Amino acid sequence: MLFMREDRSSRGGPAGLDAPLFVLLCRCSRLRQPQGLRPARERQNTQARVGGVNGAESLTSGAVIPRRYGCLHTYFGVLFELAARRMRRIYLSDHMALSRISRRRWPLPLPFFTLITLLLVGCRQPVTTQAPVSASASRPVVLPDSAGHVPRLDAQLRQHYRALGDAAQGLRFAVFEQAMTGYLNLRQQGLVPRQRLAIVDFDLPSTEKRLWVLDVSANQVLYRTLVAHGNQSGQLQASHFSNTVNSHMSSLGFYVAGETYVGKHGRSLRLSGLDEGFNSNAAARAIVVHGADYVSENFIKQTGRLGRSQGCPALPLDLYEPIIDSLKGGAGLFMHKSEAGYSSPYLDEQKASAAYFPAA
């Protein structure tokens, strides 16, 4: 036969099988090599397993077969192993290529990443979406800030304040802002028909010019001068205020100027208090604007302070009449003092902003 020989090969192959073909068959079928090509330990293990007549054994399963079937078994075994070798080469080449790519790019198995991905997707927080903003909401909205101011109104009042220039020397913006806020609300309610506003800051001592008369429409300071406080409100500084009749104290808050009359102090201007509980008794107390000789620089030089009234905002003799004329008939007046417990509904900046920026 082509593949069989009667004696054992000198190279150590089994009987009836050509040695080179046997070596090829062993390599393809992953059988153990002949004894001559293996280490001594492997030869001993193989000898312990080999049995049968003349040492003939199956090349694929290791089972002992008779010699008469050796040729046929070997022939089909070789054909089988050659086909298996062809298929194994294709599989292993593709598998090794894929393995190299897999080891290079994915150090962990793909199922591991699949599991992690599923866990991450399951643990994601639900995504919330906001409703779209309506186009009608694009108009700027005026909201009060943490200090209670309306930013839009505040910015506009600052422009007016800066425009007053040096003529408003000594007038702090905080006082100006409160006075203008009340003025806007009073104008909105029709309580102050004239666009004039007088501001008195009792935070300042009587030796300083603490009265300002503003032309709101022209954004100008008309007058800046001295003004007296009540004789029971304090000496140099006014620190006590009252709405009680015969208290001889000054009263804080917003007033509206009325008509003039001639009294014991000459020509005077009536005032109506608009803040309930703070100056609402101004008419009953005869709180008016008038001139007095104790409101002068000479009096300050003699005594170190101005003279005091019975609660009226008394003015210098050389200025009281033009000031009265600028205020009579509906101008506003605001008397300010910090930390005196004063509050007023006319200090509502939301309403003042609505009055300053009327809706289109």
From TrEMBL:
Name of protein: Murein L,D-transpeptidase catalytic domain family protein
InterPro entries in alphabetical order: YkuD_2
PANTHER family in the record: HYPOTHETICAL EXPORTED PROTEIN (PTHR38477), MUREIN L,D-TRANSPEPTIDASE CATALYTIC DOMAIN FAMILY PROTEIN (PTHR38477:SF1)
Species per Swiss-Prot/TrEMBL record: Hymenobacter edaphi
Pfam families named in the record: YkuD_2 (PF13645)
Domain of life: Bacteria
